[in-house]
Specification:
With about 400 residues, the protein is of the alpha+beta class. The chain is about 45% helix and about 15% strand. It is globular. The relative contact order is 0.13.
Length: about 400
């Protein structure tokens, strides 16, 4: 904190320069326990003489990480949905620097994923349907979130040459997206094959069901990914790059929305986490996040057995009361997706030349690209979650759930 306050520049033993930049950070008063469970960051709340701040130290260093630059730009554009950037620590200088961490103001809030999951859990634990008050609140949040996401994209682009200028999404970009997604599928199929041979009896049936399902869907998966070719000739720009409900905070006192974590998806290759992409890709990743709420709520409702069950593949096997909750959650998810997407499209100036049906096909393609990334990620880090993206993949390539 002292280094931030005095703008320290420290020579390292290897000859690099460790620089601290910041302003508005008051004297150190104490430290709160760090946040656990994050795979890519270490988050620490620090008490200062003027209030609490959050220090984020990146576990996965990436020369393409421009979170500090994004926050500074949004601050300069007076974008109201991000916490104030107070400082950064980095190796090197200016554009070539490697950012090691940032300091931002602390916002008393809860992330939207936790808020929605807890609200559903509270309703279901009482043996009742979610009341109209909860349904209305979720609808309002989805609409506000779509509007705020469109405003975020507007604030991140301009027409002047430089890092914030929009570019054309070219055929080569489509090729990279397609190949990256199919590569994730191939890696996941190999991993599922290994798990089918080596897993304990409880896990093996679900793994085998998932692998059989995905092998049978390879052709429609590639066909649905082909929707992304319609992005060619459109814009790509700086976007959030990892937008989901846990990356949006909701103020405890006023319900205001705050976007966080602009460093991109943790399992992408260095330099690729913050690459320019069509803004609808952010819309699609948020669409996938509502599906995660549905699955986590159902897991809470059923209990631990849901973790390794093949519910995502055989929902008809559920007892009637549980199937009723599952169906209600699917209806809620579809409603949230439609509210969020409609609000985004009505606010954004980027896609006014497209019909809603064209936008929905693009969102479906990008949502599938995201679901394939999720499957690879979950098989690597959170094995109990792998049915969630499998269910999403199956829905997105069929005429069933997902963006129509």
């Amino acid at each position: 904190m002292d280094a931030f306050r005095r703008g320290a520049k420290i020579q390292t033993e290897s000859g690099d320069l460790l620089s601290f930049r910041g302003g508005g950070i008051a004297a150190f008063r104490g430290i709160s326990p760090g946040q656990v469970g994050d795979t890519s960051n270490l988050l620490v709340r620090i008490r200062t003489a003027s209030g609490e701040i959050v220090l984020k130290s990146y576990k996965l260093l990436d020369p393409g990480n421009r979170e500090a630059d994004i926050l500074a730009r949004l601050q300069a554009r007076k974008f109201p949905h991000t916490a104030q950037l107070l400082g950064e620590m980095a190796l090197g200088r200016q554009k070539d620097r490697l950012v090691l961490g940032i300091a931002t103001e602390h916002v008393d809030s809860v992330d939207l994923f936790t808020w929605m999951r807890d609200a559903w859990h509270h309703a279901l634990s009482g043996g009742r349907e979610p009341g109209e008050e909860l349904v209305k609140a979720c609808r309002g949040i989805a609409s506000d979130l779509g509007e705020a996401t469109a405003a975020l994209h507007d604030a991140l682009i301009d027409g002047h040459p430089g890092p914030w200028q929009t570019e054309i999404f070219a055929s080569e970009d489509f090729g990279v997206a397609f190949k990256t997604a199919t590569r994730s599928l191939g890696i996941s199929l190999r991993r599922l094959g290994q798990l089918a041979r080596n897993s304990e009896p409880v896990l093996a049936p679900s793994v085998r069901s998932a692998r059989t399902l995905l092998l049978g869907l390879r052709a429609p998966i590639e066909e649905t990914l082909g929707y992304l070719e319609a992005s060619v000739g459109g814009v790509k720009s700086v976007i959030h790059s990892d937008l989901h409900l846990a990356q949006v905070l909701r103020g405890r006192s006023d319900g205001k929305l705050w976007f966080v974590d602009f460093e991109g998806e943790p399992d992408r290759a260095p330099g690729a986490r913050g690459r320019k992409l069509p803004p609808l890709r952010d819309v699609a990743t948020m669409v996938r996040s509502f599906a995660y709420v549905r699955h986590y709520v159902m897991r809470d409702f059923i209990g631990a057995d849901f973790r390794l069950a093949s519910l995502a593949f055989e929902p008809d096997a559920l007892p009637a009361p549980q199937r009723d909750v599952w169906d209600r959650l699917i209806g809620w998810e579809e409603q949230m997706v439609d509210r969020f997407t409609e609000s985004y499209v009505s606010r954004s100036a980027l896609y006014r030349g497209l019909h809603r049906a064209e936008i929905d096909l693009l969102v479906r393609g990008w949502a599938l690209e995201k679901a394939l990334y999720e499957l690879e990620y979950e098989l690597r880090h959170r094995i109990e979650n792998f049915p969630i993206p499998v269910d999403g993949i199956a829905a997105l390539v069929s005429s069933g759930r997902g963006p129509k």
